[in-house]
């Protein structure tokens, strides 16, 4: 099964690799749509002294960068978000614990002003697919990751799917290795996760890990092959072997490398690093360790 997965992994595990050293794609301009042509005037009825805004208890939408927890305010949601919110709540109707986790998620900065955030939509779509506490809590941490905020809307959908798949208890072969991998991915910004189309002349390249930067500044990254994981609101198709391999096996494999980056390719330790990463990746995907002779 997908033997060629192993070889290309560490291909780029060095600065000199041929990975285009694209520096952090500057915030893919999520178009906050400043141009809200607010209905400034309502000159229709001059008679009645325009009733005061009925419910506007929340602070004015000052875009203060402060981390002040903003309470969820449906009025700040776009129509698309409101629709998704309703659908999520319908899904969680008889699940008090999950609903509580969801309410908690809504207090995070991801769900604060302004409306229409693509990462929000990606999360809501996946909560519909995976109405599970662990997944919802994982999204709370995903929202804290700088690399997630910088991704395109489509890649945010891929990332949300990846997180949901790995944290869900309902996916085929769900297992602890996937959860541990997510702890590493979501626990800090130590490793930047990115999606990009990865061409390969020798079989399929599922992903690659490496470091960018120079001298004292280094950033670990993992690039996953976006060609193999469709964007969109659906979930990871359990029958799509390539997609499952990328989000479960490749991610666990590469995360393992970032924990113990190896050295000389001729060395024993390099071999052991590769073996360990392969083992962990296999277990993440299949839910059980590899068996000799398989
Ligand atoms: Zn490897």
What does this structure look like?
The protein is mainly alpha-helical and 294 residues long. The protein has one domain. It contains nine helices and three strands. Strands 1-3-2 form a three-stranded mixed β-sheet. Strand 2 and strand 3 form a beta hairpin. Helix 3 packs parallel to helix 6 and helix 4 packs across helix 6. The longest helix has 19 residues. The chain starts with 78 loop residues before the first helix and ends in an 8-residue tail after the last helix. The N terminus is likely disordered. The structure holds zinc ion. The site of zinc ion (ZN) has 6 residues, from helix 8 and helix 9.
Order of helices and strands: HHHHHHHEEEHH
Q: Which structural class matches the secondary elements? A: mainly alpha
Cofactors, ions, other ligands: zinc ion
* SS summary, helix count: 9
Tell me, briefly, the overall form.
globular
Stretches where pLDDT is under 50 for at least 5 consecutive residues are: 1-54
What percentage of amino acids are in beta strands? 5-15%
Distance between the termini: 10 Å
Helix residue percentage: 25-40%
How would a textbook summarize the main sheet? 3 strands, mixed
Strands of the widest sheet, in order across it, are 1-3-2
What Rg is obtained from the alpha carbons, in whole angstroms? 22 Å
Structure summary, number of beta strands:
3
Average of pLDDT: 81
Give the count of structural domains.
1
Helix/strand layout:
Layout: H1 79-91, H2 96-105, H3 118-129, H4 133-142, H5 146-150, H6 153-167, H7 176-187, E1 191-196, E2 207-212, E3 219-225, H8 241-259, H9 268-286
Parallel strand pairs: 1-3
Antiparallel strand pairs: 2-3
Helix pairs in contact: 1-3, 2-4, 3-6, 4-6, 7-8, 8-9
The chain binds zinc ion (ZN).
């Amino acid at each position: 099964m997908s033997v060629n997965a192993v070889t290309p992994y560490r291909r780029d595990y060095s600065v000199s690799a041929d990975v285009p050293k694209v520096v952090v794609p500057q915030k893919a301009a999520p178009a906050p749509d400043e141009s809200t042509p607010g209905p400034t005037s309502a000159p229709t009825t001059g008679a009645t002294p325009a009733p005061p805004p009925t419910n506007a208890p929340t602070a004015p939408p000052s875009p203060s960068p402060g981390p002040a927890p903003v309470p969820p305010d449906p009025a700040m949601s776009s129509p698309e978000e409101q629709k998704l919110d309703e659908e999520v709540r319908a899904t969680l109707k008889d699940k008090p614990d999950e609903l509580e986790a969801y309410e908690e998620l809504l207090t995070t900065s991801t769900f604060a002003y302004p409306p229409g955030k693509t990462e929000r939509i990606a999360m809501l779509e996946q909560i519909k697919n995976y109405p599970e506490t662990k997944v919802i809590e994982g999204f709370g941490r995903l929202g804290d990751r700088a690399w997630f905020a910088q991704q395109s809307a489509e890649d945010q959908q891929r990332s949300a799917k990846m997180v949901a798949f790995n944290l869900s208890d309902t996916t085929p072969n769900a297992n602890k290795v996937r959860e541990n991998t997510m702890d590493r991915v979501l626990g800090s910004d130590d490793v930047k996760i990115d999606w990009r189309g990865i061409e390969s002349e020798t079989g399929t390249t599922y992903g690659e890990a490496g470091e960018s930067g120079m001298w004292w500044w280094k950033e670990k990254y993992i690039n996953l092959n976006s060609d193999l994981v469709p964007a969109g609101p659906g979930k990871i198709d359990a029958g799509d072997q390539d997609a499952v391999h990328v989000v479960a096996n490749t991610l666990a494999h590469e995360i393992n490398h970032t924990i113990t980056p190896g050295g000389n390719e001729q060395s024993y330790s390099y071999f052991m690093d590769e073996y360990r990463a392969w083992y962990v990746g296999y277990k993440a995907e299949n839910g059980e360790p590899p068996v000799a002779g398989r």
